[in-house]
Amino acid sequence: YLGFGLMAARARVIELGRAATGKGHPCFAKGTSLKYTYADKEYPVDEVVEAGDFKGCAAAAFKALDHDKDCGADKAACSFSGVWRGKPASMQRVYYVSSYFWDRALDSGIITDKSAIEFKTTPGEFAKRATAVCGKDAAEVAKQYSLQEAHAPYFCLDLSFCHTVLTQGFDLAEGSPLNLVKQVRYNGQTIEAAWPLGAAIDELSAL
Fold first, then answer.
1. What's the CA gap between 181 and 184, in Å, rounded?
2. How far apart (Å, rounded) are the C-alpha atoms in residues 139 and 24?
3. What whole-number distance in Å separates Cα of residue 176 and Cα of residue 193?
4. Count of CB atoms within 10 A of residue 173's CB?
5. Are 165 and 65 in contact (CB under 8 A)?
6. What SS3 class is residue 91?
7. Where does the signal peptide begin and end (predicted)?
8. Which residues pair with 179 in a beta bridge?
9. What is the pLDDT of residues 71-103, one digit of tens each?
10. Running DSSP on this structure, what letter comes out for residue 39?
């Protein structure tokens, strides 16, 4: 899923969700005007004229997934961007997600225990939080959720993208069990559940 980290996803969603007039975007509050920079390229959001909207933002996030790209297998076994998801039976298992899913779940209040390293939730909780956030201006969001000023304008987009990846990308139901993970326990130690760990596992599995 290279290219679908949260920072890269912001760029894709901004570009694909921008209104035809160039004066609106459903992932941003009314009055927003900013430039998002990713990989030395600027993605402008200019003079948003309508309030942000979760459903509209989720639709933009869905476009960014490139959901219909062929993965070389039966459609039911594909996730998004041409990536094989696995056998349909795997959908019966519990999913573990980390990295930006954990960060935004913590920021939005889905995770209520700040000392936890694992927390059980559902994809639907991301939708609830996104619905509450979208439409609020960045100053209000920053104050209510104690966010860094740099992240506040993108909070609606981030939460909507998380929800869309889970429900549209991986086809999980709103109430599917989901384990958010910050760290994993191994031999009496805790190890950060971040992308280098996943990359290492992927490399080792190829040996």
1. 7
2. 19
3. 21
4. 12
5. yes
6. helix
7. none
8. 96, 120
9. 777 777 676 665 666 665 555 677 889 889 999
10. T
| Cβ-based neighbour number of residue 97 at 10 Å | 19
What residue type is assigned to position 17 of the chain? G
Closest CA to 166 of 151, 154, 176: 176
Q: Are strands 178-181 and 183-186 parallel, antiparallel or unpaired?
A: unpaired
Residue 154 is encoded by which pair of tokens? 């993108």
Could you tell me how far CA 87 lies from the centroid of its own chain? 23
The answer to whether the CB of 141 falls within 8 A of the CB of 133 is yes
Q: Between these two residues, 155 and 67, which has the higher pLDDT value?
A: 155
Tokens of 62: 């869905």
CA dist 131 and 156 (Å) reads 8
Give me the DSSP letters along 43-82.
EEE----S---HHHHHHHHHHHTTTT---SS-GGGB-STT
In this structure, the number of other CB atoms found within 10 A of the CB of residue 136 comes to 20
> Which residues, other chains included, contact 69 with Cβ-Cβ below 8 Å and sequence gap of 6+?
78, 80, 81, 82
- Output the average pLDDT for the chain: 86
Q: Which domains does the chain have, with CATH numbers?
A: 6-205 (3.30.420.150)
Read out DSSP for 129-189?
HHHHHTTS-HHHHHHHHT--TTTGGGHHHHHHHHHHIIIIIS---TT--EEEESEEEETTE
